[in-house]
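Changelog entry: the S-protein homolog record was regenerated in this release. Current contents:
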Amino acid sequence: MSFSPKLSFSVFLLFHLCIVMKATTPPSSKWLEPYRVTITNQDVPVVLLRCDDLDASLLKPGNSTSWKFRKNFWDSNKYGCRFYWVDDNFVLQKQAEFTVFDDEVANKLCGTDGYNMNRCYWYITRDGFYYSKNDGSDWNLLHGWNNIG
Ligand SMILES: *[C@@H]1O[C@H](CO)[C@@H](O)[C@H](O)[C@H]1NC(C)=O
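Regenerated structure tokens:
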């Protein structure tokens, strides 16, 4: 079998296509829905907050914490948070734990816009945890606090 320039060119092309494809394929997340979750403490003296793999936060009244991410390909992003209501003497008063973001929360509450930031707002109050999509007009009390012990 003689060496075929045609075959050789095809191999050359294929080889380069692979490199180009590999080099130009953007991270898949670029195509997936962007989200920002914001959690604000309204009137609890001190809230200690820990959401899965994020750093813990200490929120005084008026303080917020916020993070953004894109949905992954499997829609499996999930942030479960633990909240601790602490008084001014750092004595634990109440606690709560719920999922602030997952696919169900996204579909029911935050939205599923593929191009613009989907925003989810949680407000922490002494009554419990309010959710709003618009940060102001449509608060709904969705979770309560649990007493300690
Ligand atoms: C948190 O709130 C306190 C008052 O409640 C304020 O003094 C402080 O600057 C706030 N911190 C941040 C990071 O906003």
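Confidence is low (pLDDT under 50) at residues 20-28.
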